[in-house]
Amino acid sequence: MNCKEVNKNLIFYIDGELKPEKETEIQEHLMNCKDCNILFLNLKESMAIITQEKEAKPNPFLFTRIQEEISNLEEPRKAYILRPNFIKVLQAVTLSLLLVVGVIFGISMGNSIQYQTPEQSMVYQSDEFYLNDLQQETIEAFLLTEE
Amino acid sequence: MTDSELTDKIKRGDQQAFKLLFDKYHVKVFSTCMGFVHNKNDADDITQEVFIEVYKSANKFRGDSKLSTWLYRIAVNKSLNFIRDNKKSDWLRSIETIFTGSPSNELEKNHNSGYDPEMIMENKEKAEMLHRTIDSLPKNQKIAFTLNKYEDLSYKQISEVMDISLSSVESLLHRAKKNLQEKLLSYYKKN
Q1: A22, B10, B78, B189: which could form a disulfide with B58 (CB 3.0–4.6 Å)?
Q2: Entry pTM
Q3: Cβ–Cβ of A52/B181 closer than 8 Å?
């Protein structure tokens, strides 16, 4: 068996999944080939990492955490209303409503203003002209009367 | 108490039955999650999510499959969702480790007890490379490999969890191992 063939089967050799004859061939090759043996040891070490990771233990307070989470889920509906998220949403909705009301009020105010047409403006000027009583009682006449 | 008795009681809201279920399966669920996320804190969080899901949807469990199969399915899905949704990318995580120096996994903690620093670094590199290689496997190969290696599930159990045939499991595991071997050996040759 050559190096290429051995390298193709190392992981199965480590897992003990090869037929006995093939296993013996690889074993003999590893004893005689230093490079393949180094690769084999490295791969074996890497696979052993999984065994080490399997020794990890979960948090001892995990069940308490789960119970707490479940009790939060089962809180009555009223409690939901008091949650910070709900209050934030309520604030946003109120502000949006106020904005919409403000815009509608502004539009209605704008529509209620009556602008003067040019004709109306002329009438005003002519009224002003008639109210001018200077021609009826001139300033000169006024001064003469004073004397 | 059998699994079906346990689920019946949980469906009726029995807290003690839920505690029994947790005691019986939480280590298996945690170990499965560890196989996917390779981080103890994340695995704790996902295990918590799994049991909350079990509590919430106990009524949906019809008992067509084994309780353990159902639990493994939830654990696998939650782990894969976690990996997908995890905002914290690998590079950010490594930067965090550089600055905080806090060992985030069990492996590192084991290695910090009495070995020389060079060996710790070497093993850490090897572990990171192994995780990267497992993570790079196609989804189904990764699921089959993780359930087999981290949870020691038989081919039959894996086929039940993944809802595929036995021959498909064999094929997935064979390809997963070949891919893993190829990538790891090329890494060793370079280093």
Answers
A1: B10
A2: 0.70
A3: no
